[in-house]
TrEMBL record:
<dbReference type="GO" id="GO:0009143">
    <property type="term" value="P:nucleoside triphosphate catabolic process"/>
</dbReference>
<dbReference type="InterPro" id="IPR052555">
    <property type="entry name" value="dCTP_Pyrophosphatase"/>
</dbReference>
<dbReference type="Pfam" id="PF12643">
    <property type="entry name" value="MazG-like"/>
</dbReference>
<dbReference type="GO" id="GO:0047429">
    <property type="term" value="F:nucleoside triphosphate diphosphatase activity"/>
</dbReference>
<protein>
    <submittedName>
        <fullName>NTP pyrophosphatase, house-cleaning of non-canonical NTPs</fullName>
    </submittedName>
</protein>
<dbReference type="InterPro" id="IPR025984">
    <property type="entry name" value="DCTPP"/>
</dbReference>
Length: 118
């Protein structure tokens, strides 16, 4: 885990300990809370056109920024609870995705990977 993730993980542990919230932070509960925060992020874009979603005003961007932070903080907390190194997990997943979605076969397509598999 890189230093910024370690620092945030430590800060999240301290934050929860100071509030006696560790008792509520089971992996199940953290995963559920994460989906709520992801939905709040999605809500920031609800009813916007594609173009509007690419040109957020300052207020909209501030709301998106806060929700992205909430999602990331819950991910860090959950990863710590189950012993996952987020940085390594992302590297591993990118390798799997590269094998699953070969650039020369899927370039420019948004179709699910199963359409081109032999």
């Amino acid at each position: 885990m890189s230093d910024p993730f370690k620092q945030l993980h430590t800060a999240m542990n301290q934050f929860a300990a100071e509030r006696d919230w560790d008792q509520f932070h089971s992996p199940k509960n953290l995963a559920m809370a994460l989906t709520v925060e992801a939905a709040e992020l999605q809500e920031c874009f609800q009813w916007l056109t594609e173009e509007q979603s690419r040109a957020l005003d300052d207020e909209q961007l501030a709301a998106v920024r806060d929700e992205i932070a909430d999602v990331q903080l819950y991910l860090i907390r959950l990863a710590g609870k189950v012993g996952v190194d987020i940085e390594q997990a992302c590297r591993d997943k990118m390798q799997k995705n590269a094998a699953k979605y070969p650039a020369d076969e899927v370039r420019g397509s948004s179709r699910k990977y199963t359409w081109y598999q032999k």
